[in-house]
Structure prediction request, 139 residues.
Amino acid sequence: MFITPEDYNVVIGPDALKVISQASAENIENAQCEAVEEIASYLRPEYDTEAIFSAAGKERNRLIVMYTADIAIYHLLSSLPGRPNYELRKERYDRAIKWLEGVQSGKIVPDLPAMSDAGDAGAAFGTIYSSERKLRHNW
Prediction:
């Protein structure tokens, strides 16, 4: 998987992770898959998401790792009754989504591998088409 158990230590303690995952590695894996797909849906038009999420160790973008962990924890927490610390997790989730929207709009440019030009479907993403004003020869 893209996220290792040690990566979660930056955003949540190991005991708290066990509690919100209900001590199930399968729950954590499902939340990670959901988080990766959610992030990829924002990045896919401009960035090579396969290369981003297949990277390992120090080759991974640390911000993507942190936001993936934040989003996965948010999804895990959303399924619990009572939702402990929900406000904090909702705030971190919203911050991750805001960053992804900034990347998608081109206002934020992270150090991520770009899509190759060979047949990518999102080549026109971010391109603005326009034309000159219509000429009127009415004298």
Notes: The chain has a mean pLDDT of 86. The radius of gyration is 20 Å. Helices lie at 14-20, 25-43, 49-54, 62-78, 86-105. Residues 5-105 form one domain.
